[in-house]
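Weekly structure sync, notes
Attendees: PL (lead), two postdocs, one rotation student
Agenda item 3: pending single-chain targets
PL asked that the sequence for the first pending target be pasted directly into the notes so everyone works from the same version. It is reproduced below exactly as submitted, 204 residues in total.
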Amino acid sequence: MKKIGIMGGTFNPVHNGHLKLSVAAKRLFKLNKVIFIPTGTPPHKDTTNIADKEQRFKMVKIAVKGFKDFEVSRIEMNRPGYSYAIDTFNILKRKYGEKVKLYYIMGLDSINEILTWKKPIELLKICQFIVATRPKAKVRTFKRVLKFPPIQQYVSNIHLIELNMGISSSEIRDRIGHGKIPRRYLPKAVAGYIEKHGLYRTGK
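Predicted structure, written out during the meeting:
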């Protein structure tokens, strides 16, 4: 059976942690490819300091260039309204059929909010979750989420991997807003794009 990983997110901006997680997920779960899907309009985030969706798409596009079996999809960007994961995965399920197993790749912070998502139990039914955590991360909230009765029966669909991921997109934006692009955490071409277009300089 073919396996496809889905790396969704705002990617505001995409950084080395996203790439590191995707590479690890592909290797550990023997994924045939990983599709990055930048959100169009994220339903759970403040949009005051989110770069234009075309800029975010371009940053992801240049970030994955050179990575074998990595690609970028406009599926959420081209869909009007909010970008809900369940809608995206239903579309992907219809597209690929039963011969493809879908894996949703994310960080621990994301899955800790799963109970606020649209139709989270339906999502757990149709895909596997690959969840990254940092060393010594507090997983108390995560363990509470797993004990929620409707989710308990799908615990076997949630796989936890530990990665040393050093920074978040919000921290990167904060540093840029204070006048310094943290290049060590960004793909070289993405850092150059941010500098060229003056993204995140407001520090909001």
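Discussion points:
- The chain is about 40% helix and 20% strand.
- The first strand starts at residue 2 and ends at 9.
Action: rotation student to compare against the earlier draft before next sync.
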